[in-house]
Give the backbone structure.
Amino acid sequence: MLNLIFCGAPGSGKGTQSDFIVAKYGLAHISTGDVLRAEIASGSDLGKKVNEYTSQGNLVPDALIIDILAAQVKALGADCKGVILDGFPRTVAQAEALEKIMNTTLLVDLQVDRDELIQRLLNRGKTSGRADDNLETITRRLEVYEQQTKPVADFYAKLGKCATINGMGSLEEITARIVAAIEAAK
Ligand code: B4P
């Protein structure tokens, strides 16, 4: 099984690069951001609760997202070659919960300069219609990332399972760097 975590600041390219790596290795793909946006779009009570957090740039509570993620992991088929978790875990508590249900091969930590992150997300906001792609919310999301998500990479580094990847450059260059790190970890 090849079980990967894509981690990095908002706009670092987790979703973009996951798509290439999923196709190359035939993996399943779980994006917690996509799962939460689908829940909001459904208009459910859970979706309304989730929207209160995400639209302000805050993380949804650990207890909620851990249950959602665990259900997605359990639903993977027996013939699954592995999975990319895109945007999970985002806190150390989520990482600890994950390691009880999945054996992670590697965490890919995408590093992108702050100015570039803001530019990418503002550009995405012109077409995404996402309530969280505006300057105020982006600033809050970057703060949350520094405080709560950066320690997740340290958690996996201590397990010897973290690859720090330069996320600046063309899509192809970044994909090649990620593939090299995966091949070294397999
Ligand atoms: P996510 O959906 O995970 O979104 P993201 O961090 O904004 O984006 P990503 O890094 O995937 O960037 P993308 O490839 O799209 O999370 C949204 C929200 O959901 C969170 O803020 C949080 O509230 C909540 N949430 C999710 N998971 C949670 C969890 N585990 N716990 C609690 N809450 C959780 O790239 C961004 C843009 O850059 C795109 O427009 C792309 O085209 C462009 N781009 C990508 N690579 C580029 C490159 N190399 N050069 C130029 N542009 C590039």
